[in-house]
Amino acid sequence: MSHRDDVFIKVFVGILAGLALFTVAIIILANTIGVTEVEGVRGSPMSEDAVAERIRPVGRVKVAGQAGGEQAGQATAAAPAQDAQTVYTTACGTCHAAGIAGAPRLGDKGDWAPRIAQGMDALNQHALQGFKGMPPKGGRMDLSDAAVTGAVAYMVEKSQ
After folding, report:
1. Which residues have CB under 8 Å from 153's CB, separation 6+?
2. CA-based, 20 to 30 A from 39: which of 25, 62, 123, 146?
3. Is 123 within 8 Å of 113 (Cβ atoms)?
4. Domains of the chain as residue ranges with CATH
5. Beta bridge partners of 93
6. Reduced to 3 DSSP states, what percent helix, strand and coil does the chain have, rounded to the nearest 5?
7. Residue 28: count of CB within 10 angstroms of its CB
8. How far, in Å, CA of 121 to CA of 127, rounded?
9. Furthest CA-CA distance within the chain
10. pLDDT in tens, the chain (160 residues)
């Protein structure tokens, strides 16, 4: 081995030893001045309660007829009957007022004429089962079939 190789190896080993010592010093320093949690102190951003509160679910999905949808011994309340205009406003109006995703706009005779020509049975089936971009019942599965078909009749009446 040449003298240059010996010098390189000594410098390289020295640098590695220095990095190892530096790493150990940083670890010791971090443990010395690190944040310690005081027993019984609530409100720490890292306390188990605070973490559990931040990650808790916002809500639950209840599906009729599936296990877990109802508490033992409790019956789910039926959705309250709603008039057709209210159903339109709360479920249908989001898309049908602005014509989102090709939805026929309420009151636009040109949009509705070809659909009305298909007949009420077809319109009701599309509303109840979904059609193209529209989900079944406009995404409001809590509505009764009668409420949805009433809203369809309301939209047809306002668009003839």
Report:
1. 84, 120
2. 25
3. no
4. 3-55 (no CATH), 84-158 (1.10.760.10)
5. none
6. 60, 0, 40
7. 10
8. 10
9. 99
10. 788 899 999 999 999 999 999 999 999 998 888 665 555 555 556 678 778 888 888 777 777 766 654 444 444 444 456 788 888 888 898 889 888 888 999 999 998 999 999 999 999 999 999 888 889 998 888 889 999 999 999 999 998 8
Judge contact between 109 and 157, C-beta under 8 A.
Answer: no
Residue 115's Cβ-count burial label (10 Å; 0-12, 13-18, 19+) is middle
CA–CA distance, 108 with 125 (Å, rounded to integer): 21
Dihedral pair phi/psi, residue 134, rounded to 5° = -90, 125
- The DSSP-derived string for 20-67 is HHHHHHHHHHHHHHS--PPTT----TTSHHHHHHHHS-S-----TTST
